[in-house]
Amino acid sequence: MTDAHSPDNPLLTIEGLPPFDRIRAEHVEPAVRHILERTTSGIQTIEQILQDASPPTWENTIGALEELGRVWERSWSPVSHLLGVANSEELREAHESVLPDVVALGLRIRQSRPVYQALKAFRDGPDWDGLSETQQRIIDDRVRDAELAGIALSEDDQQRFNEIATRLSQLSTEFSNHVLDATKAWDLTLDDPTDVAEMPETLKQLASQSFNNQAQDQAGDGDPETGPWRFTLDVPSAMPFLQHCRNRDLRERLYLAYVTRASSAELDNAPLIDEILQLRRERAGLLGFTSFAEMSVVTKMADVPSVESMFQLLRDASWQAGLDDLEDLRSLATAHGQQQPLNHWDQAFWAERLREERFDMTDEQLRPYFPLERVLDGLFALVGRLFGISVEPADGEAPKWHADVRFFRVHDDNGAPIAAFYLDPYSRPENKRGGAWMDECLARRRVDAKLQLPVAHLICNGTPPVGTRPSLMTFREVETLFHEFGHGLQHMLTIVDYPDASGINGVEWDAVELPSQFMENWCYHRPTLLGIARHFETGEVLPEDLFEKLCRARTFRAGSLMLRQLNFGMVDMQLHHQYDPSGSETVRDVKQRIARLTSVLEPLPEDRSLCAFQHIFAGGYAAGYYSYKWAEVLSADAFSAFEDAGLDNEQAVSATGRKFRDTVLASGGGRHPMDVFRDFRGREPSPQPLLRHNGLVADPDTPAG
Ligand code: ZN
Predict the structure, then answer these.
(1) Which residues of 588-616 are buried (b: 16+ CB within 10 A; e: fewer)?
(2) Packed helices 344-359 and 544-554: angle between N→C axes, nearest 10 degrees
(3) Of 196, 262, 199, 202, nearest in space to 236 by CA
(4) Averaged pLDDT of the chain
(5) Rounded to whole angstroms, how far apart are CA atoms 5 and 9?
(6) Residues 624, 621: Cα–Cα separation, whole Å
(7) What's the confidence (pLDDT) of residue 217?
(8) How far, in Å, is the centroid of ligand 1 from the Cα of 381?
(9) Can the peptide bond before residue 228 be classed as cis, meaning omega within 30 degrees of 0?
C-alpha cells in the first residue's frame, strides 16, 4: 500500500511541522525500516571516513551525526508522541515491531569505537581551541558517555562490565517484581461500617470496587455504603486509608504490612540489595571511580560533597520544625481522646485532621476561579512581562492529532518568530496517557544553513468543557501547567543551534527541573494569581481567605515533609558512597543510623521499607534521589532573585526576567549548569530561599505572597 519511499508517507516529510493529522499506524513500519537502513549505511560511511585517517573535524563527526539524527526527529519522535496522546492497538503493535531495532541502532552509534577515537583525537588535536564552549561540551559529553558505557576498558574488564550490567538489570526487574507480588499478596477486607466511618466517598468507592473485582467469582456484590471494603498496599488505597481510618489497630496492621513489603521468605529483597550495591560498586571501580555515587555525579550538576552539605544544612534547619509538627499532632490526638502515645501509624491520620481543622478547602471550591482560557491569558501575560515574548494562537497553521489540540507561536519583542508549541489540554482516558509532560517536537538546529525553530509539546489532562461550562482547573492543575510551561520555555527560548545541547537537551539531570519549578512559584505571587483567578460566571476575584489558605497549605508540615525526603536522599547517598559491603556496618545499620537523624519519632525496629525502595533499586534514581531537593534549592534561589529585586517593581522584575532568559533559558545544555546558575545569580546556589519559602527560618523581611 504505502511505499516507504513515497512522499506520501507522512513520517518521511523533510520540512515543516510533522503532519500529525495524516500519520497512521500503517506508516510506521515502512518509514522506520527505511530510516533504519539509511542510518545504518550513514554511520558506516562516517566510520569509514574517520578510519581512513581523515583528520576529525566538527563536520565529519558531530555535524554528520546530527544530520543522521535529524530524520529520526521527523519519523520516530512523532510516533512516540502519538503513543502518549492518540494511542491505539495498531499503533502500539507497529511501534513494538520496530522498537528493538531502533534501540539497537542507537546503542551501536553511541558506542561506535571509530567515532569515539576520532572525538578523543579531536580533543587532543590543534583544532580543539577553535571550537566554541558549547561544541567542546557536546564532544566531551559524547566521549564521557561512551566511556561510562565501558568503551575504553580492556577486553577482560569489558566482559566483566557487561556481565555486571546484565546481572544488574535482572536484579532490578526481580526487585520490582518482588515489590509488586508482595503488594498484591496482602489485603484487608472490612465489613463493619464503623471502621470506614467518615472516610471520603472516593476511598469507599475504590475499596468497594476493589472487593468486587477480587471477589468476582464469589458473591462479589459489595456496595460503597454497606461494604464490604477491601484495602490494599497500593499507594492510592494505603495512603488515604492511613489518613482516614479511625480504627487505630487497623492502621497499625496496614502500616506494618506496608513497611515490611518484600522483606521475607521468597520475596525477600534484602539479599538483592546487597548484591546490587556490591555490583554497582564493582562497576564504578572498573571505570576508575571510588564509589557508585562518584560515578553517578559525573553526569550531574552537583558533586558528592555539595550534596552532603546541602543535606546537613536542610536537616538541621528542619529538625525543630519537625519536632513542633509532632507536638501539634500529639496535642490534637490527646485532645481527641487518644490514650496511647503517638506512633508511626498515627501521623498521617492526625496530620489530615489538623489540615482539615486549619484550612480545609476542596478542589471544587477553587475550580470555578480557574477557567483554562483565563489561566492561559494570565500565564502568557506573565511570560510576556518576564521574558519580553508574546504568545499568539495560530491554530489554523498546524496539523493536529485531535480537534481539542491548540497551537501557538512565540515571538520576540521585535516581532520575530522564535518558537511554537502545541497544547493538548484535556484528558481522554480512552487513548491518552494520564499526567502532564513537556516533550520536544522539533529542536532548534541549522538545516542547510537555515534555522529550524524549536517546537514543544505541552500535554495536560484537565477536565474538558461541558456544554457552556468552560474547562475549569484545580489549583494543582494550574501549578502543573506553569511547571510544564517552564520546561517548554527552556526548550523554546534556547539560542543554541546544535540539537545535542539546544533547549533541554544535554542539561544535567539534576538541573533540568530548575525552570519548571521556578515557574510554579508564580502561582503563589499575589498579583499574578489574583490577576488570573476570577469566577467564570460572576467575574468575582478569588476571595482573600482562599488565597491565604493556599499559601499556608504550601508550608503545612514543611519541616516533616523535608525530613522525610532527606531520609530517602541521605540513605541513597550513604549506601552508594560511604557504605562498604565488606565493612562492619550493614545496610540496615546505615538505614537505622540515618533514620535517627531524620525521624523525630523513634524509628521502628521492624521497619524494612528499604526492601521496597524502588526509586534507587529498580529505577533510575540511584545516587540521584537528592536531585528532588537540589532542584528545589535551585528554583527557590532563582525565584529569590526576583524577590531581592522587588516583586512589586515592574522594571526590576522584567530586568531580572531578561537575565533569567539570557542565562538559564537561553544556554540549555550548552554550558555547565553551575556556570549558568552563576551567570544568573552572580554566585553559587544557596538553600536559604528554599528554607524561607518553606517557613523554616524566621526572616522578618519575607514579602507576603
Ligand atoms: Zn518537570
Answers:
(1) eebbbebbebbbbeebbeebbbbbbbbeb
(2) 160
(3) 202
(4) 94
(5) 8
(6) 5
(7) 61
(8) 22
(9) yes
How far apart, in whole angstroms, are the C-alpha atoms of residue 616 and residue 24?
38
Task: State the distance from the centre of ligand 1 to the C-alpha of 513, rounded, in angstroms.
Answer: 5
The mean pLDDT value for 326-336 works out to 97
User: How does pLDDT run across 540-588, given as a tens digit for each residue?
Assistant: 999 999 999 999 999 999 999 999 999 999 999 999 999 999 999 999 9
Phi, psi torsion values for 370, nearest 5 degrees:
-125, 65
Amino acid at 236: P
Inter-residue contact 482 to 378 (CB < 8 Å): no
SS percent in the chain: helix, strand, coil, step 5: 60, 10, 30
Task: Please choose, from the candidates 492, 517, 519, the residue with its C-alpha nearest in 3D space to the C-alpha of residue 668.
Answer: 492
CA of 563 to the centre of ligand 1 (A): 22
Q: How many residues does the chain have?
A: 705
User: Would you say 689 and 640 are in contact if contact means Cβ atoms under 8 Å apart?
Assistant: yes
CA-atom Rg of the chain in angstroms? 27
User: Beta strand pairing status for 417-426 and 455-462?
Assistant: parallel
The burial class, CB within 10 Å (0-12 / 13-18 / 19+), for 399 is middle
Q: Is the pTM of this model over 0.85?
A: yes
Q: Could you tell me the CA-to-CA distances from 562 to 139, 239, 314, 538 in Å, in that order?
A: 38, 18, 8, 40
What integer pLDDT is reported at residue 700 of this predicted model? 41
Place of cell 472490612: 190
DSSP state of 117: H
DSSP result, 267-280: G--HHHHHHHHHHH
Per DSSP, the three-state class of 563 is helix
- The Cα 81–Cα 76 span in angstroms is 9
Question: From the CA of 633, how far away is ligand 1's center (Å)?
Answer: 15
Q: Is the dihedral of CA 109, 113, 116, 119 positive or negative?
A: negative
CA 272 to chain centre: 26
Give the span between the Cα atoms of 94 and 679, in whole angstroms. 46
**Residue 12 near residue 75 (C-beta atoms within 8 A):** yes
Question: Which positions are annotated as active-site residues?
Answer: 484
What is the structure's pLDDT at 618? 93
Find the angle CA(236)-CA(237)-CA(243) to the nearest 5 degrees.
95
Cα(115) to ligand 1 centroid in Å equals 33
Element housing 167 (H / E):
helix 155-184
Contact 573, 293 (CB under 8 A): yes
Query: What is residue 645's three-state secondary structure?
Result: helix
